[in-house]
Design brief:
715 residues; alpha+beta; Pdz3 Domain; 2-enoyl-CoA Hydratase, Chain A, domain 1; 3 domains; seven-stranded mixed β-sheet; 25 helices; 21 strands; 44% helix; 15% strand
Length: 715
């Protein structure tokens, strides 16, 4: 959860309601950073100034800063080397050995204000990248033999740096062969499709000709790739070094150079690239951080958080590789005029490669707000979808807690028998809104405990005795439910107010970050070396009212349902340098439901899930995805490669056929929403129809319907 400067200042008048004490932390931070007005000399170099500011900022502001010692130094050393050469295509083993003299000295350099390790690593990197630029062209002049059984290890963490230049050239050969194999197969499939549709304008080529074309495409891709690589200068690599220094404290603490901060702001505003996805650069890859509700990617539903974008192609043009590309450069490729198409080549968490074509469009703000529908059956169930905990404190702004309250009132008028709050893929947002939203379902009481550095935990509580809805409640979560979503699910679970259903665990992010503009922290004497960028620092941790942190472990649902990606490593626990799980004393609160009422409902649901053929198929497929994700060595034999792709497509088809075979649920709008749709523009009517259709085919909602039926029967 990120807390902006405006959030602190505009939340001041609400503190009495929620016990919102975070402003004091913000003010302390300003006081600490304000010391730089007099602490540094105006003649101090920019690199040294940034190094000192970030180091001291971590010491004073970070919730649990890593001590500057040899252990810290080793982590920085290993991480920076890995980030410089993520695919081990440049450095030799002897280069790493020559740099090992700095391995435990980086902490000493920081204290001395020197950057000898960075300078040495940078010099070797510049030499090796220039040498590597001469490797690929000779390799691509000769045809590859795709009948040979050999493999390319696609996970660089499982490989070592090459022993010498010959070994490195061999690594390049396999890498280039793999890239050629991918393009060759694409060309074969394209030709097969043209043959099937009897396209007379398509000139058929032999396998030899297609292989040559594929190599030419790979050469062009590498020409462009090295051109972009050499556009990244020493300052960019120093910024990467600074980011590594702070990342070692925890993965959510980051340094943003001025240009990167602009990209971060665009991502957080929800107006990103015309596809509606929040992206980040992660270990040399462009990673989908979240999907923005209301955007093209959200409506298409194929691109997911956690996907890696490997290539970007404009409509009718060759794809451009974005691996190891700067984020701002990749963003420029993905952005475009409304109505134009862009094709993304993505890598799924299970290792599957897929192409997704999206039509660029604006984010439809309406679809980011809470929405409701009715699921009809033995019982009438009110469904509320909440894709984010939004809160706009400006005049006329909307708050998700108010919107959910209005949806509940609307549903109650329909005489519903239960409510399901869908927090799947909800990445979080406003902390205050979570507290107010939990208050819609309970009378009064603590909702979340928040702990700052070296302070006793503070309580954020609901003091409003009114309850908007007191009937049966189910909360849906998955592995992408994070931060604020986890706080709400945890509170509902701890109070035994409702039943949580979903993936084996939620994401597991239980920390709060604060963003500082470094220019604001130094005086006008430094104007000549500004802008300095910004830093995002982890300053607090969340704790459930029961005492346990949501950090790392997330929330374990009362009822676990099989999920296609449930068995694949994902979430906060898979990040480097994560803050640990811990617990504090529980708060004083009372459970809403006592006895074995919930236990009986949960037991019945688990029996249904175990016997459900759909969930059995999903679970088996999930196990297969896990195997695929762990098998990172890819074949370079054309026939074997095609067989593997065919098997993956067969699995995808089985899932699609399974979804089609399920009897659709009866889903419709509330009366008031139906009235509002009369006379609405055709695009809004179409989007609503698509949403109703999507809900009707959601087999997870089928089990939720059964759970609420049990809750009604057993209460």
């Amino acid at each position: 959860m990120n807390i902006s400067k405006s959030t602190f200042s505009q939340s001041f008048d609400r503190m009495s309601k929620t016990g919102y004490f975070l402003l004091s932390v913000f003010l302390v931070g300003l006081i600490v950073f304000a010391s730089y007005h007099w602490y540094f000399k105006p003649t101090q170099e920019k690199d040294q100034l940034l190094l000192s500011m970030l180091t001291d900022g971590m010491k004073t502001q970070h919730f649990a800063p890593h001590e500057l010692n040899d252990s810290y130094s080793e982590k920085v050393f290993n991480t920076y080397i890995e980030r410089l050469d993520i695919n081990k295509k440049f450095f030799l083993q002897k280069d790493i050995e020559s740099l090992n003299r700095f391995k435990t000295n980086i902490d000493d350099e920081i204290n001395a204000g020197t950057t000898n390790f960075f300078e040495a690593a940078n010099a070797i990197y510049e030499t090796r990248t220039k040498q590597a630029a001469n490797y690929y062209k000779p390799i691509l002049t000769e045809a590859f033999d795709f009948n040979v059984d050999e493999y390319y290890e696609n996970d660089s963490k499982k490989t070592s740096f090459a022993a010498d230049s010959n070994a490195l050239k061999e690594q390049w050969r396999k890498y280039l062969k793999y890239q050629t194999l991918i393009r060759l197969n694409d060309l074969i499939e394209e030709q097969d499709k043209a043959r099937e549709r009897k396209d007379t304008s398509f000139t058929e080529k032999s396998l030899t000709e297609l292989e040559k074309t594929a190599r030419e495409k790979v050469k062009k891709s590498n020409d462009d790739g090295f051109k972009r690589l050499f556009e990244i200068d020493k300052d960019d690599r120093y910024n990467l070094f600074l980011n590594t220094l702070v990342n070692v404290h925890d993965p959510h603490t980051e340094y943003f150079p001025p240009a990167d901060k602009q990209n971060f702001d665009i991502a957080m505003s929800g107006q990103l690239q015309g596809i509606g996805a929040q992206l980040q650069e992660k270990d040399g890859f462009i990673k989908v951080n979240s999907i923005i509700p209301g955007g093209p990617a959200y409506r298409d539903a194929r691109l997911k958080a956690g996907d890696l974008i490997l290539k970007v192609a404009q409509d009718g043009q060759e794809p451009v590789e974005v691996t190891e590309m700067r984020l701002d450069k990749a963003v420029q490729l993905i952005r475009g005029k409304k109505g134009t198409k862009v094709t993304l080549t993505i890598k799924k968490p299970d290792g599957a490669i897929d192409n997704i074509t999206l039509t660029r469009d604006i984010v439809i703000i309406e679809e980011t707000y809470a929405q409701s529908a009715i699921i009809n059956g033995k019982e009438k169930i009110g469904y509320i979808r909440l894709t984010g905990f939004y809160s706009d404190f400006g005049k006329g702004g909307r708050d998700c807690a108010d919107d959910v309250k209005n949806e509940l009132i609307k549903l109650k008028k329909e005489n519903i028998d239960g409510v399901v709050l869908d927090l799947r893929d909800n990445g979080g947002g406003s902390l205050e809104s979570v507290v107010r939203m939990v208050g819609l379902f309970i009378r009064v009481g603590p909702v979340v405990q928040v702990k700052s550095k070296n302070e006793d935990p503070g309580m954020m509580s609901d003091f409003d005795a009114s309850v908007t809805y007191d009937g049966p409640l189910v909360v849906m979560v998955n592995e992408n439910s994070a931060s604020a979503s986890e706080i709400l699910a945890a509170a509902i679970q701890d109070y035994k107010r409702g039943i949580i259903i979903g993936s084996p665990t939620t994401f597991g992010k239980g920390t709060v970050q604060r963003i500082y503009n470094l220019d604001d922290m130094v005086g006008s004497a430094y104007d000549a070396i500004k802008p300095l960028g910004s830093v995002k620092i982890t300053m607090q941790k969340f704790y459930r009212v029961s005492g346990g942190s949501t950090q790392l472990r997330g929330v374990t649902p009362d009822i676990i349902v099989p999920d296609l990606y449930a068995k694949i490593k994902y979430g906060e626990k898979e990040e480097d340098f994560v803050m640990p799980w811990d617990e504090i004393a529980p708060a004083h609160y009372g459970k809403v439901h006592t006895g074995d009422y919930f236990d009986k409902v949960i037991t019945e649901s688990k029996k249904r899930i175990e016997a459900n053929p759909t969930f059995k198929t999903i679970d088996a497929q999930s196990a297969e995805y896990k195997i695929q994700s762990e098998n990172s060595a890819v074949t370079l034999n054309l026939k074997s490669y095609q067989n593997r792709l065919s098997e993956s497509k067969k699995q995808e088809k089985e899932i699609e056929e399974l979804k089609k075979s399920i009897s659709p649920l009866s889903v419709y709008n509330c009366k008031s929403d139906s009235i509002n749709l009369v006379g609405a523009d055709s695009s809004k009517v179409r989007r609503n129809k698509e949403w109703m259709s999507s809900l009707s085919k959601d087999f997870y909602l089928g089990e939720v319907k059964n759970i609420i039926t049990s809750m009604q029967k057993l209460k």
